[in-house]
TrEMBL record:
Residues 5-40 form the YjiS-like domain. It comes from the Bacteria. This is Uncharacterized protein YjiS (DUF1127 family). It comes from Kaistia dalseonensis. It holds the Pfam family YjiS-like.
Amino acid sequence: MANNLFATYKNWLKYRETCNELNRLSNRELNDLGINRGEITQLAKRAAGY
């Protein structure tokens, strides 16, 4: 159970880190990457393995 809890926490940290990094980018930088702001949550979840 502790391993599962740790893995869940680790995934959540990855999700938050990804969201924060992408939200720091300007719209132009996101556009250069082919991302719009509305996709950030979805991309962060995918990066975290949700």
